[in-house]
Specification:
heterodimer, A: Helix Hairpins, Heat Shock Protein 90, Alpha-Beta Plaits, 4 domains, 5-stranded mixed β-sheet, 16 helices, 16 strands, B: alpha/beta, Rossmann fold, 5 helices, 5 strands, globular
Chain lengths: ~525, ~120
């Protein structure tokens, strides 16, 4: 019995050892892949630079700026120019490919209707298709619903398929793009087809189409210029969207390239959003904010309240990139907002204003290295219990400036950044408000009628209620003397007018760092 | 009327030479410098109507010089066209700097560049 147990332990140890070795090897591979990707990125820059000069010198001659050319000369230089463009495209593709291999390519997915994208791509490529005397049409399915995809990347796939269709065309060429909603194995997809009536692809080549550098057979490559990496990159992009891409073709009868993008069901969409947010946060593209609501009592599980809550947060997050997800996890209701720090502050403000419930809540912001969803939630719950990492107190800023336009503009901007603001348009009122509201920071203009900024500052520093409030002075007067007198006033900082809002914000943050 | 001035900031002397021919053929005055520091020096003497700026430059690179020029009221508003071998996707933050009107990936199309110069200096809307 004892032996049996020992043997079990040995085996477990051995397994653990193997697992560690494997994970170490994996990390090594990832590291190498990154080094390779960095190298290619650098090389790509180095290649583009001389290519630019080559292209420009050829263009100069070709455009007749260095003297007239005969038709023959024009033809040959035209070939050179086309091939430079091909080479440049290839460099871009290699860069994409290596990034894909290193797992460094991120899809910036948004919920959009793919039909809109098709229309856009159609409009932008129409001229180049028609230039080749080809017919170009689109047919958009009316039932196609909005779904999550990266418009730039899916656009890249469409353009690649169109350029292949142009390249492998024949007389009376036609290209048609169509979209439809389709059910495959109980899941819904948007299906997009790029169809041509070109030379087609032999059956034996179809399976190799989407592999690295598989430009059909070599004679075709020579005649038409290879398909290169485009299809391989397209496949990578579609797979990163959870879809599939394939081709149907007959030599002489044209080809159909078909790809799908999943349409998520409501509950699938939740998990998709969580996964996607974690993925993005992992790549440091955005911070993850988890807002956790602890439901102490079953009677507090009021759907209406939660809906209001979710709506309030939804109305607060800032851009189309920001996302809200809600799900239940044991005794916690979790609303996850993908936004940045400023977005988080705005959310907190909104919650405080609007939601009057007995719910305990906490907000946690996590760094980009949190990879696992469960781990994230667990950590957030723990933090909530300890009261750590939660609720960032709202800072109140008092703006004192006689220019009303400026105070209201600044106030608007700062409110959007999650600060609370009060404004005063003269010095007296400013001092009064400072005493009454005890702001965290005062933004003070120097040049004001009646009592000026220097005087305001002196009064504030004399009063025990306001003497500790940091002051940030702004002024159009920026000579050495003013700077010195400002220092004597004990101002925490100075910013010259006119200033960029970003500079002001960074000054404000700087002040808060030391207070 | 005075000729509009196009300032090229690029350490590739060959490219600058060729751009000179193009830009002068369009009837503009051409100036060129090799890096960001020289660009700031030139700006103190003459105000160009548009700047074609490379990113990877010796001494002071394109990012830094852009940030620097925005601080000076006198030339903060000069339109800038970025001409770079770096990928456009990485340039997102530069566009946020507002004064960048266009980005052109190297190798670029000359006709397109000339068009963008025209738009930048307000000869075309």
């Amino acid at each position: 019995m004892r032996n049996e147990e020992d043997r079990m332990k040995d085996r477990e140890k051995e397994a653990q050892g193997l697992k560690d070795a494997l994970s170490k090897a994996n990390k090594e591979v990832e590291k190498l892949s990154r080094i390779k990707s960095d190298f290619i990125s650098m090389i790509s820059h180095e290649l583009r630079t001389p290519l630019t000069s080559i292209k420009e010198s050829i263009s100069l001659v070709l455009d007749g700026i260095a003297g007239p050319l005969n038709e023959e000369q024009k033809k040959f230089l035209g070939i050179a120019k086309n091939n430079i463009d091909r080479l440049a495209k290839l460099i871009t593709d290699i860069l994409d490919m290596s990034k894909m291999e290193a797992g460094r390519i991120t899809m910036r997915k948004r919920k959009l209707n793919v039909n809109e994208l098709i229309k856009e791509v159609y409009a932008s490529t129409k001229a180049s298709v028609e230039q080749k005397n080809m017919e170009f049409s689109i047919s958009l399915g009316t039932s196609v619903e909005p779904t999550w995809f990266d418009p730039d990347r899916i656009g890249q796939v469409l353009k690649n398929l169109i350029s292949n269709a142009i390249k492998f065309n024949k007389n009376n060429g036609r290209i048609k793009i169509s979209s439809a909603k389709e059910n495959i194995n109980n899941s819904w997809f948007v299906r997009i087809i790029v169809e041509d009536n070109g030379i087609g692809i032999p059956e034996k080549d179809i399976k190799n189409l989407f592999r690295n550098f598989s430009p059909l057979d070599t004679s075709m490559t020579r005649k038409y210029g290879g398909a290169g990496l485009g299809l391989c990159i397209s496949k990578g992009i579609i797979e990163l969207h959870g879809g599939d891409i394939w081709a149907i073709s007959k030599p002489g009868a044209g080809s159909k390239f078909i790809f799908t993008i999943p349409i998520y069901k409501k509950d699938e969409e939740f998990s998709f959003l969580i996964e996607d947010s974690i993925e993005r946060a992992r790549r440091n593209e955005s911070k993850l904010a988890l807002i956790i609501f602890e439901v102490k009592d079953a009677k507090d599980r009021n759907e209406k309240v939660f809906n209001e809550l979710e709506q309030a947060i939804k109305n607060t997050v800032r851009g189309p990139e920001d996302k809200i997800t809600r799900y239940k996890n044991g005794e916690f209701l979790v609303i996850m907002a993908v936004t940045d720090r400023i977005g988080v502050m705005a959310i907190i403000k909104r919650i405080r204003e609007r939601i009057k419930t007995a719910l305990v809540f906490g907000i946690s912001i996590y760094p980009d290295d949190t990879a696992d969803k469960e781990e994230l939630i667990e950590k957030a719950e723990l933090d909530l219990r300890k009261g750590e990492n939660s609720i960032i107190p709202q800072k109140i800023l008092l703006i004192i400036d006689d220019e009303e336009g400026l105070t209201s503009m600044l106030s608007f901007r700062l409110k959007n950044m999650g600060f609370d603001t009060i404004t005063a348009n003269d010095g007296d009122r400013g001092v009064e408000l400072a005493k009454k509201n005890k702001p965290d920071l005062i933004l003070l203009d120097l040049m004001m009628p009646k009592i000026d900024g220097f005087e305001v500052s002196k009064r504030l520093k004399k009063d025990s209620d306001t003497m500790r409030i940091p002051i940030l002075v702004f002024s159009a007067l920026a000579n050495k003397n003013t700077k010195e007198s400002i220092e004597q006033l004990g101002a925490a900082g100075f910013i010259e007018k006119p200033f960029e809002p970003e500079d002001l914000i960074s000054k404000i943050n700087e002040v808060f760092k030391y207070v | 009327m005075d000729k509009k001035i196009v300032l090229v900031v690029d350490d590739d002397a060959d490219l600058a030479k060729m751009l000179k021919v193009r830009i002068e053929a369009e009837g503009y005055e051409f100036m060129s410098v090799m890096d960001g520091k020289e660009m700031l020096d030139v700006l103190n003497i003459k105000k160009p109507d548009v700047i074609l700026l490379d990113i990877m430059l010796p001494n002071m690179d394109g990012y830094s010089v852009l940030r620097e020029m925005r601080k000076h009221e006198k030339y903060a508003n000069i339109p800038v066209i970025i001409l770079s071998a770096k990928e456009k996707k990485k340039m997102g933050d530069l566009f946020a700097l507002e004064k960048v009107v266009f980005f052109m990936e190297k190798p670029f199309d000359t006709k397109e560049l000339l068009e963008k110069i025209k738009i930048s200096i307000g000869e075309k809307r």
